[in-house]
Amino acid sequence: MNGYPDSLNGLIEQLKKLPGIGRKTAARLAFHMVRMPDSDAGKLAEAILDVKKRLVLCSFCQNLTERDPCAICQDPHREAHQLCVVEYPADAASIENSGAFRGRYFVLHGNLAPLQGLGPEDLRLEKLKDLVVQQRISEVVIATNPTVEGNATALLLSKILKPLGVRLSRPACGLPVGADLEYMDPVTIRKSLDGRGPL
Ligand SMILES: [Zn+2]
Questions:
Q1: Which of 58, 76, 138, 177 is 20 to 30 A from 52 via CA?
Q2: Ligand 1 centroid to residue 168 C-alpha, Å
Q3: Does 34 map to a domain?
């Protein structure tokens, strides 16, 4: 219908399923792949199959790993009684890269997003509760994103975790480093003033 060969249309259709990729970008990526050397195209296809084959979820923290339990859950030098709950594996990786947290993680693999059909039953909350009890976690940092969904998720988590007697905290929200006040949205400015510290 669009004049492309079937195989090219097939590739475009698959690429369109990726997050943030519309028809135009999918077509651009597909044309790029057509021009790729065979060896690079093979490596790309192989890399996709490889992660699908080798990655599993850590049975403790639910993060992606090639070995269960994952390296962080196995590390005896981590703060064993501190847990940081995040929405996605990429969030755990960002916090890990900051070096600011030395405890362990728990990955929800989502947030409360009723509009997208995501409810509490999609968030592995039983596994989180088991982990907190079994590992005698004393402090939980709820690091879901400061979005409507992330805040709703944080509220739900606090309701579930409070009865277990753990200390709960939420990272402060504020101005990003290097930000220009002129271009900040009012909510961010308000939150950063609410959480202001002494000079
Ligand atoms: Zn783990």
A1: 76
A2: 20
A3: no
When divided into structural domains, the chain yields a total of 1
Amino acid of residue 181: L
Distance CA 147, CA 163 (A): 25
Is residue 142 within 8 Å of residue 168, measured between CB atoms?
yes
Give how far the C-alpha of residue 144 lies from the chain's centroid of Cα atoms, to the nearest Å.
9
Whether 40 maps to a domain, the answer reads no
For ligand 1, the distance from its centroid to the CA atom of residue 56, given in whole angstroms, is: 10
> Domain residues for 102?
61-169
Residue 50: exposure state from Cβ atoms within 10 A (0-12, 13-18, ≥19): exposed
What's the CA-to-centroid distance between 70 and ligand 1, angstroms?
4
185 Cα: distance to centroid of ligand 1 (angstroms):
36
Give the max Cα distance, the chain.
65
**Alpha-carbon gap, residue 185 to 189, rounded angstroms:** 6
pTM confidence score: 0.81
**Which tens digit of pLDDT belongs to each residue from 63-94?**
999 999 999 999 999 998 999 999 999 999 99
